[in-house]
Design a protein that fits this description.
This is Iron-sulfur cluster-binding protein. By secondary structure, the protein is α/β, with parallel strands linked by helices. The chain is built from 23 helices and ten strands. α3 packs across α12, α9 crosses α10 and α20 crosses α21.
C-alpha cells in the first residue's frame, strides 16, 4: 500500500471540488441513501424526547466541566497513567506528534504499525510521515482499510468509506487482495478483508490506536469500536501507542458512561457498541497478554487556540459521533472529500480553522445554510451555527484589528470594498430618506439581478407538492359547511 497522498487535497480548493461533487450523480445517490438511513437509525434510538434532552444536558455538563478544568485534569491524567506504567508524551504540533511516534518506532527497530481507528492519526497524516521513513502503517478498521487501499482520506469521521458502493469495494479488493475475485456480496467482502488483515496483527511491531475518552481519576483510556480490531491492535503487538487530542479527557470514569450512550446512539443508531475497551497500562506481572510497553501522545495541534476563546472553546466539547454530518444538507450533497480536511461536515467547519488556520479554511464556514440541524442533533449541545457565524466574522475581520484571542489566519477573506458596501447598506437602512431612494433605484435595476440562486435552486431536493391547493381545501370546507 502506497504511503504517498495521491488523492489528498487542500481545503483551499473547496469551491472547485463542490462543483465536481454536485455533478457526480453516483456520489449524491450514495450519500443521500446513507444519510437517510443513519438519520432513521438515530431517531429509533431516542423514542423518548424527554430522556434525550436530559441525556444531552448531562453530556453537555460533563464536557463543559472537563474543559473548565482541562489543565488540572490533563496533569492528573498524566500522573495516573505514569503510575500505571504508561509513558506520556506531549506534542504541540502534528510534526512533533509524528516525530515522537517515529522515535518510539525507531528505538524498537519497528518496520510495521497496525492501526485501530484513529482520526487524530489522520489529522497529522501519520501514515505518510512513516512511509517516507520506511515504516508501513496498516489500517485495521474495515472502512479505513478500504480508503487506504483506494489511497483516499476518510469521507466521514465514523464511517470512513461511506461514499463507496459495494461494487467499488468489490473492484478494489479484486485489485489489491491476492486471489480475490470480484463480488458484490457484502459478507464475502468483509470476510476477505478480515482474512487479509488477520496476519497483520501478528506481524506488526507496534499497535496504534486513537482514544475516545480518558478518565483522569483512574488513568483509564476508553476505546469504542464494533469490529474487535481496536482490541487486537492494542493487545497483540508488544508496543501500544495511543494518540489523543487534549480535549478527550474527563474528570472520572463514571462521566464517560453517559457520553458513550450518546456516542453510539447518535453515531450509528446502536443502543450499545460491540466493544468497550478500558486500558489502564501495559501488561503486568503474571498477565498472559497485552503490550509490554505503552505510550500516550497528547496532541494539541491548534486545540489550545480554540480553548483560549470562551465561545470557540465549545468546539472542543465534540465527542466525534458524526450526527451533525448525518443531518447536514450540504454534507449530504457533496460528501466528505469536497472539504479537503480530515474532519468534514459541520464539525469540520468549526474545528479545522484551529488545526489548519483560517487562511486555509475560510470558505468552509460559508458552506452552510445555517438551517440549525447540526446544533439540534448534537448530543453535547455544541452551538455549531453560532460558531460558524463567529468564524465567518473572524475570516472577514480586518487583520490589523486588535482582538483578545486572534485566530491563525484571521482576516483571510477581508475585503475593503466589501466593507464599504456593508457600510453603505447599514447606512441606507438607518436613514428612511436614503432607504426610500435606494428602494426606488433597486426596483428599476431589477433586470440586472441573477435569474437563479445558483447552487441552492439547482441542487436542492425540491419539496414534495401538496396533493391539493389551499384554495381547493378552503372551497371543500365551505361546501361541507
Amino acid at each position: 500500500m502506497s504511503g504517498a497522498p495521491l488523492n489528498f487535497v487542500s481545503p483551499a480548493d473547496f469551491r472547485a471540488r463542490v462543483d465536481q461533487a454536485l455533478q457526480d450523480g453516483k456520489l449524491r445517490s450514495s450519500m443521500r441513501g446513507a444519510m437517510d438511513f443513519l438519520q432513521t437509525k438515530r431517531k429509533s434510538q431516542f423514542p423518548d424526547e424527554d430522556e434525550l434532552e436530559l441525556l444531552r444536558d448531562l453530556g453537555e455538563a460533563v464536557r463543559r466541566h472537563a474543559l473548565a478544568n482541562l489543565p488540572q485534569l490533563l496533569q492528573q491524567l498524566e500522573a495516573n497513567l505514569q503510575a500505571n506504567g504508561v509513558q506520556v508524551h506531549w506534542a504541540e504540533t502534528a510534526e512533533e506528534a509524528n516525530a515522537i511516534i517515529h522515535g518510539i518506532a525507531e528505538r524498537r527497530s519497528a518496520r510495521r504499525i497496525i492501526k485501530g481507528k484513529s482520526m487524530a492519526s489522520e489529522e497529522v497524516e501519520l501514515n505518510h510521515y512513516m512511509a517516507e521513513r520506511g515504516i508501513e502503517c496498516v489500517e485495521s478498521d474495515m472502512g479505513e482499510y478500504i480508503v487506504q487501499l483506494a489511497e483516499e482520506k476518510p469521507s466521514h469521521i465514523v464511517m470512513p468509506a461511506v461514499h463507496k458502493t459495494k461494487s467499488d469495494i468489490g473492484a478494489l479488493f479484486e485489485q489489491h487482495i491476492p486471489g480475490m475475485s470480484y463480488t458484490e456480496d457484502v459478507d464475502t467482502l468483509i470476510q476477505a478483508g478480515r482474512r487479509a488483515l488477520r496476519q497483520a496483527f501478528v506481524d506488526a511491531d507496534i499497535g496504534l490506536s486513537g482514544v475516545n475518552f480518558a478518565a483522569a481519576d483512574t488513568g483509564t483510556i476508553w476505546l469504542v469500536e464494533n469490529e474487535g480490531n481496536g482490541r487486537l491492535s492494542t493487545t497483540v503487538p508488544d508496543v501500544h501507542i495511543a494518540l489523543m487530542g487534549l480535549e478527550k479527557v474527563v474528570a472520572s470514569l463514571e462521566h464517560i458512561v453517559p457520553l458513550s450512550s450518546l456516542l453510539t446512539r447518535s453515531a450509528t443508531g446502536q443502543s450499545i457498541t460491540t466493544y468497550f475497551n478500558l486500558i489502564t497500562g501495559p501488561r503486568r506481572a503474571g498477565e498472559l497478554d497485552g503490550p509490554r510497553e505503552m505510550h500516550l501522545v497528547l496532541l494539541d495541534n491548534g486545540r489550545t487556540q480554540a480553548y483560549a476563546d470562551e465561545q470557540l472553546r465549545q468546539t472542543l466539547q465534540c465527542i466525534r459521533c458524526g450526527a451533525c454530518m448525518n443531518h447536514c444538507p450540504v454534507y449530504a450533497r457533496v460528501g466528505g472529500h469536497a472539504y479537503g480536511t480530515t474532519y468534514p461536515g459541520p464539525i469540520g467547519k468549526i474545528i479545522s480553522p484551529h488545526l489548519l488556520g483560517l487562511d486555509a479554511t475560510a470558505d468552509l464556514a460559508t458552506a452552510s445554510s445555517l438551517c440549525g440541524a447540526c446544533g439540534e442533533v448534537c448530543p453535547v449541545r455544541i452551538p455549531i451555527p453560532q460558531l460558524l457565524v463567529r468564524l465567518r466574522t473572524e475570516a472577514n475581520r480586518d487583520p490589523e484589528q486588535s482582538v483578545a484571542h486572534p485566530l491563525r489566519g484571521q482576516g483571510a477573506n477581508y475585503s475593503r470594498s466589501e466593507q464599504l458596501v456593508w457600510r453603505f447598506w447599514s447606512g441606507a437602512f438607518a436613514r428612511p430618506s436614503v432607504y426610500r431612494w435606494f428602494r426606488w433605484a433597486a426596483t428599476r435595476l431589477r433586470a440586472f439581478a441573477p435569474s437563479s440562486q445558483l447552487g441552492w435552486t439547482q441542487h436542492r431536493t425540491p419539496l414534495k407538492p401538496a396533493p391539493r391547493s389551499l384554495a381547493e381545501l378552503l372551497r371543500e370546507r365551505g361546501q361541507a359547511e
